[in-house]
Write the structure tokens for this entry.
Amino acid sequence: MNSLVKDKVTLALDVLRELGEVAVAFSGGVDSTLVLVLALKACRRVTAVTVHFSYVPTRVVKRARSIASALGVDHVVVEDHSIPGDLAHNPPYRCYLCKKRMIELIRGVVEVEAIVDGSNADDYREFRPGLRALQEEGVLSPLAMAGMGKGDVRAALRALGVAGWDAPPTTCLLTRIPYWSLVTPSRLRRIEEAENVVREVAGVEHVRVRDHWDIARIEVPRDQARRLLEPEVATTISSRLRRLGYRFVTLDLEGYRTGCFDPVGN
């Protein structure tokens, strides 16, 4: 780990040492994994809490369980598969509503001095309505407070010998649906199944299937797109996604990108 990243890790540890007992809002992604690893070093009591909403892929929750088990940390998974009315039409401020509900659920299952999450410094440069909810609820973000960006997080995990430091980013299934578009349990299940199909058939780990009702718009990193264009792979994916209810199956030529539906995005 280079000296700059090491200094930032030290700052994050200092933040955590001041807290003592913490609940880590743990998604299983690289950011919250680093926070969890550091909290175990710095705090006297640590509980990882994963909230499994209906729009969180099952594979993400399985990954969170696996990481927490490997670290030997107390881990609570809260199941909440409802779709509240204020989220049913996928408003642009959905992350604000989700974070509010997440913190409410965490506080309902564990009593600690503080709740911390994995927001990093780069998140504050993007469209992230959920950050306001965290601030309102008094949730602390040690990585952001230490000035750690996405690259710093992966470098720190790698240096600490934590498996999965190079794992692709995780986001909820609502990000696959255009804003102000109806969210239903069946639509969410279809998206998750479609992404699993692409991973299985093409052997591509980093996949997003954007759901435009009868159109499945597949995003993968540009350097991996060629795999999906191989005739047998393309035919198999198209056939299986059609069976899920999509009429058209497309590959986005711009490749994977974050925030493609965001009002300040691409």
The chain has a mean pLDDT of 94. Strands lie at 21-25, 45-53, 74-80, 114-116, 208-212, 215-219, 248-251. The chain has two domains: 3-159, 184-251.
